[in-house]
């Protein structure tokens, strides 16, 4: 009884398993899967423009660097003079 249940379950798994295509190469569709080609629906690819950067990088200010390289007088904040 156990043997027939195990055999039946193995046959079911083998026949139900999807067959993966094994070409050895990654398709362009897989590379662009998370890419949105255009922000406007129905617009052609020739009219698409890249959008603005969502979160531009801003280096944090820490006491050890005393905000070097920034614009304005950022050192005044750390010296207790206000800003």
Automatic annotation (TrEMBL):
Gene Ontology BP, a term: calcium-mediated signaling
Lineage: superkingdom: Eukaryota
Organism: Fusarium denticulatum
Signal sequence region: 1-16
Pfam annotation, one family: RALF
Record family assignment: Belongs to the plant rapid alkalinization factor (RALF) family.
Lipid biosynthesis found in the keyword field: no
Protein name per UniProt: Rapid ALkalinization factor
Keywords linked to the UniProt accession: Disulfide bond, Signal
